[in-house]
Amino acid sequence: MFYGGKEMRILSWKRKTLRVVAALVLLSLAASPAGVRIVAASRNHQPSGGTMTEAFGVVLDTFNPAQTGYTAAGWVVRDIFDSLVYITPEGKVTPWLATRWTVTNDGKTYTFYLRHDVTFQDGTPFDANAVVYNVHYFENPATQSKVTSILGDYLSAKALSKYVFQYKIKTPYSPLLFNWGGWQLGMQSPAALQKYGKEAGNHPVGSGPFMFQSYVRPTTITLARNPHYNWGPSAIGISGPAKLDKIVFNVITQPSVLADELRTGQAQYAASMPVLQYKVLKADPNFTPSPIKITGAGVYTLINNAKFPTNDPAVRKAINMAIDKVGVIKLADAGQFPVTWGPLQSGTYGYDEALNNYYPYNPAKAAQVLKADGWKKVNQIWTKNGKQLTLRWTLIAQAGDYDDMGTAQIGYLTSFGIKVNTAAIAGTAWEASNTNGDFNMTGPLQFSDTDPDLLHLMLGKGQFFNWARYANPTVWKLLDEGRRTPNGPARLKIYYHAQQIVEQDAWNLPIRLDENLDMMSSKLKGVRVDFGGVPNYYPAYFSS
Hints:
Radius of gyration: 23 Å
CATH architecture of the domain at 296-515: Roll
Helix content: 10-25%
Number of strands: 25
CATH class of the domain at 296-515: Alpha Beta
CATH topology of the domain at 296-515: Dipeptide-binding Protein, domain 3
CATH superfamily of the domain at 296-515: Dipeptide-binding Protein, Domain 3
C-alpha cells in the first residue's frame, strides 16, 4: 500500500517520488498476476560473487519498512527483511518464516508455526516472541507506523509456544494472510529496535539475505550478503546465501543520467527509466528490459474534496473533462502508457472495466457542468459569487515526467479558464502539505497495492492516506463490508458498487497505467519480480 510521486511511491515509483507504499503488497487470492515476471530464474549452481550496482532515483525517508511511505523503499529493504509467508508471482501463499498456518474462528484467528533455524542479522533468535514484539511495535502509536491498517482490527498477539505465534482480530479481514507476505510487515530484530529506538530506520536489522552495511546520505546505499542465510522461500527454488556479494544503490535524481550509468557499466540495473531512454536500450542486446506493472490505483492527480473550490463535485467533474489524458501522456511519456479511468487500474483485483471512459475529454461538457452550477466566465476566468475558480496545485519537486504530467494538466485547465497557482515542494514537505490539506490538487502520484482494500486506505474514514478528505458514508460502509468478505463474486460486487459511487463523486483525476520501466545488463540474471511489483535480488547472479 504505498504512494508517491516520481521516485516516491506510498504510499512506488517510476521516476516517481512517493508512492502511497501505499507499495503494501496487500495481496489477493484472485488477483491477476499481470505484469509480474521472473527474469532468467537461477539455480544453486550459478556463479557467485560480484557487486550489483543499481541506479536508483529515490532519496528514501527511512529504511524502516513499517514507517516508510515510499513504495520505492521495497527495492532496498525487501532483501533485508523476511516475511512470515511468501507470495508467488501467481498470487499463491507459500511458506517462508512460517512453515504452515491455520485460519480459524471465522477468519479472526491466525496461527503461524515458525521455522526453528532463523536468526536475525545481529544474532538475535527469531521465534514467536520476536513476532509478538514486532506486532506490538507496529501497533504502538509512538512508532508512527503506516502498516496498522493492513493488520486488520487488531485484538491480540501472543506466543503459544517458542515457535507458535497466534494473531487475533476483532472482525474478519480478507487480505490479512497476503499482507503478512508484504515487505512492509517484514520482521525486524527486537534487539535492534530496542537498541536504536527512534533511529532504528537508520540501522535496519532483519533476517534477510542481505544486510544493511552503510548509507552515505544521500547518494549511496550498500547492502552486503548475509553469509548465514539459509531460510529463503522454497518457492524461489534456491537455498543458502545469496549469489551476489553486495548490492549498491547509487541514488541518482536526474533521470537523464540513468542510461549513461548502464552504458558505461557503472550500473547493472536502472530503476524506472525515462521512456525515450528505455526504448533505445530495449533495442540493444547488451541490456534486458524489465517492465514492471504495479498493481493499485495507477498514476493519478489527487483532488482535495474538502477545500474550496474543489469541495464542489461539479468543479471536480469539470476538471476531469477539461483535461486530455492522452495529450498529457504524449507530452510527458511519449504516449508510452495507456489511460486509466477508475480508482483501480487494470490487473488489480476488483478493477471495474465498466468505468472506462467515465469522464472523457470534453471541454464543452465541462463548461455545461460549471454553468449549471452557477459559474460563468468573467475576463476568461470561471467565476461564481465574485470568486474566481482558482486552484492551489502542489507538485513534487524534481519528479521528472511527473512534473511534466502536472505541467500539462495545468496547461489544459488554464486554457479552459481555471486559474492555477503552483508550488513545487520537496518530498517530506509535500507529504506534510497533503496531511494538512493545504492544496486543491496535488501530484501526480500513485498508490500501490494488490487488493481493493487499497480503497479503504485512500478513502476510508479517519485513514492517514485519505488526503482527499473524501467523505461518503455509503462508500465507507461498502468498504468496511468488502474488508470482511472473502474473495469471490460477492466481494467483487461490493467493490464495483463502491467504485461507481466514487467515480460519480469525481474524487480524483486518474491519468495513466502505473508501470516501472526498469532495465538491466544482459549479464545480470535471476532478478525476480515479486507479486505486486517489487524486485527480489536474492536469486540474482552474474552470468560471467
